Amino acid sequence: MEKKVHTTCPYCGVGCGVIATVTRKGAVSVKGDPEHPSNYGWLCSKGSALAETIDLDGRILHPEIDGRQASWDDALDLVADKFAAAIAEHGPGSVAFYVSGQLLTEDYYVANKLMKGFFGSANIDTNSRLCMSSSVAGHRRAFGADTVPGVYEDLELADLVILAGSNLAWCHPVLYQRLAAAKENRPGMKVVVIDPRRTMTADIADLHLAIRPDTDVALFAGLFSHLVSNDAVDQNYVAANTSGFAEAFAVAGCVSFGEVLERTGLPSMQLREFYRLFTTTEKVVTCYSQGVNQSSSGTDKVNAILNCHLATGRIGRPGTGPFSLTGQPNAMGGREVGGLANMLAAHMAIENAEDRDRVQRFWGSPAIAERPGLKAVDLFRAVADGRVKALWIMATNPVVSMPDADAVEAAIRACPFVVVSDILRQTDTARHAHVLLPSLGWGEKSGTVTNSERRISRQRAFLDPPGEAQADWWQLAEVARRMGFGRAFAYEGPADIFSEHAALSAFENAGTRDFDIGAYGGLTINAYNEIAPFQWPQPAGQVNSETRFFADGGFYHTDRKARFVAVKPRETDRTRPDYPFTLNTGRVRDQWHTMTRTGKSARLSSHIAEPFAELHPRDAMEIGVGNAELVEIRSQQGRAIVRALITERQARGSIFMPIHWNDQFAARARINTVVPATTDEFSGQPASKNVAISVRRFEVK
Ligand code: SF4
């Protein structure tokens, strides 16, 4: 009989509902779920091609030790022994997990619990560090907690939508379709795109501000100053719900219109028009994504945006608000369970002794981490210098995706003990594993994910696990059991884990901070299987409550007020005579991350078949390179060789390259070998949008 399963797309943070159909003969097809409130039936090219990416080609079907097939018992015993030995000999700081926004919330929860509550270390970080950690840091500074106030419907209700550092058309395609449809139906609605590149998203923009890289702080500090000078501040909202206005204005007020023009490189008419639109439009939503987050000033950029929304009280009401868009399907779920080195669980803080005590009692754990652990870049530095002796990497490919990728690969190769849990054998990272563990892929695993608008949806299995593949949470729980922590990890399935996670969010009012799904604690397996998509918070006893954050203040600092943060523009020009160009990295429409799954679809690969460097025609002329000829990109860090793509969408002096391809595709195709491991001081997020490089024509000898 044909089987139909309601599940969720595993790619971007939009979190679209998918109906997967499996025929009697085992053929799989997918279509958008018309009842899912994130996509109402729409799917983008990646989501539509999901059925083309689930074959078993290249799958890891059995555990392996040093490249040889092993039993689960032998592999898990070895992992438990090596982690226990490292902790006994060198302390809890000598072990680390590097996980992923591809993990389900249940996997994330168990990994975080084992590392922080039972190993006593907070050395668990995630590839979501590369995606949205500057937004997390900015939210915590302004709101007192990592709370995203926006919902997707706000984009349709706003009269002005600002997309800052977001190529929504390619990176959140279904949300873009919703916005484009809303704009079509409401002729007065305006869209402003802020991006150094003229991306496909700019095609629906009424105003495209092609600012110089990393000058967003100047742009929004200037806007803050403009709001004050034009009497556009909501004095009542500011007085009742915020603090720090005067201090923030003392800094932003010094940023003159002329300085903004000089720093951003914008024509004065465009800047005036942007400030006029923001000042005179009541319903404004500002979405921001990697162009804001992936910067050495990413957290300041976020706060510069939040300052403008707080000053005008445009937050927490339909059609208004700042809105951070997450890149990955479960970046938000990882935040909820504390799957980052500087978070605890249920949005509680490691630095807070009461929170630590509450979580430790709830878990019944022997040793809670007392301080934040190593964030992604520092984690791999600690692997490189020998401080980390045992490393477990789950569902991610840091040898391609981390900045300074050659150094990351060398660190992993030199690490005494590396475990990789993944679905594919031949990733650049899996090749270096001492122990390789076969995980479940999309369609085989079961659990929950949370999208950008705080909506928790089920991923449901509709395929049998191939070979001996097992869920990531099961692998972690089995290692925990072998290390003597079995009672705390005796889960029968993901429903048990989700119920425990929900109960912790409500435990002794832990969730009053901002996150409570206590209504979903103690679920039966049937109830868990039937969960329909819902947004948090859902406090115990209030299932299906609808909560808008911050309409009447209620922020999470102790005085319940939001904080303005004084941010001032910094020097952003990284170029120098030997590296006169700026490199900006990003994504293409039809590939996902390091292409381990989307690369399997011929249809998706036909959109853009190979890596490229996009450059302006006049730059190409000066370098002496023609379209599709090879160029060599060099930075202080490394080099890459790809084809030139000459286009006026690219600003002069800057080069765009996609992040997806690796050296298995072509020699020197890994762009992250060129990107240095520079990070934002508050979030630890790497900066990959403004790298000084040289470009020259490459001759094949
Ligand atoms: Fe999947 Fe994102 Fe496309 Fe939706 S928009 S189908 S979540 S990749």
TrEMBL record:
The keyword Metal-binding applies. It comes from the Bacteria. Coiled coil: none annotated. Keywords: 4Fe-4S, Iron, Iron-sulfur, Metal-binding, Molybdenum, Nitrate assimilation, Oxidoreductase. The keyword Metal-binding applies. Its cofactor is Mo-bis(molybdopterin guanine dinucleotide); [4Fe-4S] cluster. Residues 2-58 form the 4Fe-4S Mo/W bis-MGD-type domain. Belongs to the prokaryotic molybdopterin-containing oxidoreductase family. NasA/NapA/NarB subfamily. This is Assimilatory nitrate reductase catalytic subunit. It comes from Pseudorhizobium tarimense. The lineage of its organism: Bacteria, Pseudomonadati, Pseudomonadota, Alphaproteobacteria, Hyphomicrobiales.
